[in-house]
């Protein structure tokens, strides 16, 4: 049994990229491992936001993830800012993190181009390393876009261990088959909340899902090689549809008889079938905030206990524990 940690930002939208790349995997891993999952509100502060809407976005993220299958009986679910040890460890780790590694991060380069050179954007991966290392997590289920951040987490863990003594395991990623779901309207980019028209949200209605799939860019295949748009639809089909449906369309593609007028409705139907119960459960949960509160309270209690015990040991190793 491994210790698993992962997080998701409360951006207001959980899309099928988040779901297939991470959340659906969390639901699977919680049956086999010791899992802690966090709504990382502190990370989300690095994107311009409306303070008044943050509370609701955190509740939405909680409800959506629980509706998608996170089970508080099997795993712990909490909100990052409720456990201040995350920010405390983050500071300690800044003292051993090479700036060059931070400056090389793709997400830092992309975001700072739009938002300016903010220290929060630069130090974002250190807070993420703190999230993971605080619980001595060994396995981190994420999508491909987080691999760089995980690599820097391992650099920081090695640096800590060689400087202060062996303490942190080097956390390994756990990827799904759909580790990089592409934008429906531009298959050269990854599906992202920040590109409108790129995503299907877990909360989209059947009509919205049908229309979005219908409009998905396919482009023509070159020399029998699947275009990125078509490949993306097949990734989605494999993840959402029954095996025989996926295989039928794959065979059609291989024999040159694939019809988008058949593939797209079949894909839309498969997505609708899987997302409808999630959407309904989410609405139910949001109507009962007391249940969400209890889940977060229990998750925070457990996270806080482990975090504070480990922080004591980390401080001892760093010479920060006072002995009189
Ligand atoms: P976030 O909130 O952007 O995304 C949550 C998870 O969804 C995955 N993901 C995707 N997977 C496949 N295809 C896509 N198009 C796609 N878009 C997003 C992400 O890889 C992620 O796993 N920095 C993290 C949150 C975080 C975290 C952590 C993760 C903070 N601390 C500690 C793991 C461990 C983030 O912004 O994820």
Overview of this protein structure:
The strands form 2 sheets. The chain has a 3-stranded parallel sheet. It has a two-stranded parallel ribbon with strand order 4-5. Strand 4, helix 8 and strand 5 form a beta-alpha-beta unit. The protein folds into 2 domains: 206 residues, HUPs (Rossmann fold, 3-Layer(aba) Sandwich); 78 residues, Tyrosyl-Transfer RNA Synthetase, CATH 1.10.240. The longest helix has 30 residues. It is 57% helix and 7% strand. The protein is mainly alpha-helical and 324 residues long. It binds tryptophanyl-5'AMP (TYM). Tryptophanyl-5'AMP binds next to strand 1, helix 1 and helix 7.
The unique ligands bound to this protein are:
tryptophanyl-5'AMP
Bin the strand percentage. 5-15%
CATH architecture of the largest domain: 3-Layer(aba) Sandwich
Label the structural class.
mainly alpha
Which H/E pattern describes the elements? EHEHHEHHHHEHEHHHHH
What is the class of the largest domain in the CATH system?
A: Alpha Beta
Number of strands: 5
Tell me the number of helical segments per DSSP (H or I, 4 or more residues long): 13
First CA to last CA: what distance?
39 Å
* Oligomeric composition of the shown chains: single chain
Biggest β-sheet strands, sense, barrel: 3 strands, parallel
Biggest sheet strand line-up = 1-2-3
Q: Give the overall pLDDT as a whole number.
A: 96
**Global geometry:** globular
Question: Nutshell version of this structure?
Answer:
This protein is mostly helical.
Give keywords.
binds tryptophanyl-5'AMP; mainly alpha; 13 helices; Tyrosyl-Transfer RNA Synthetase; 3-stranded parallel β-sheet; two-stranded parallel sheet; Rossmann fold
């Amino acid at each position: 049994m491994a210790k698993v940690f992962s997080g998701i930002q409360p951006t207001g939208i959980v899309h099928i990229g988040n779901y297939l790349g991470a959340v659906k995997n969390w639901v699977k891993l919680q049956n086999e491992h010791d899992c802690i999952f966090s709504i990382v509100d502190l990370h989300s502060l690095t994107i311009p936001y409306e303070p008044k809407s943050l509370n609701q976005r955190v509740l939405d993220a909680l409800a959506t993830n629980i509706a998608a299958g996170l089970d508080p009986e099997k795993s712990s679910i909490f909100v990052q800012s409720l456990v201040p040890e995350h920010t405390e460890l983050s500071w300690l780790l800044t003292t051993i993190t090479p700036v060059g590694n931070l400056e090389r991060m793709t997400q830092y380069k992309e975001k700072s181009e739009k938002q300016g050179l903010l220290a929060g954007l630069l130090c974002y991966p250190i807070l993420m390393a703190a999230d993971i290392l605080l619980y001595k997590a060994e396995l981190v289920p994420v999508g491909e876009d987080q691999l760089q951040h995980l690599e820097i987490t391992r650099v920081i863990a090695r640096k800590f261990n060689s400087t202060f003594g062996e303490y942190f395991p080097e956390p390994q990623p756990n990827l799904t088959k759909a580790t990089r779901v592409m934008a429906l309207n531009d298959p050269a980019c990854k599906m992202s909340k920040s590109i409108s028209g790129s995503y299907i949200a877990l909360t989209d209605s059947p009509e919205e899902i049908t229309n979005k799939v219908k409009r998905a860019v396919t482009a023509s295949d070159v020399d029998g090689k699947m275009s990125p748009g078509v490949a993306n639809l097949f990734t989605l089909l494999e993840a959402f549809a029954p095996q025989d449906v996926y295989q039928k369309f794959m065979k059609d593609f291989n024999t040159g008889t694939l019809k988008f007028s058949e593939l797209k409705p079949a894909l839309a139907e498969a997505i609708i079938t899987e997302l409808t119960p999630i959407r309904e459960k989410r609405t139910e949960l949001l109507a009962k905030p007391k249940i969400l509160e209890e889940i977060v309270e229990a998750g925070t209690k457990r996270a806080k206990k482990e975090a504070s015990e480990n922080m004591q040991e980390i401080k001892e190793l760093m010479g920060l524990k006072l002995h009189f």
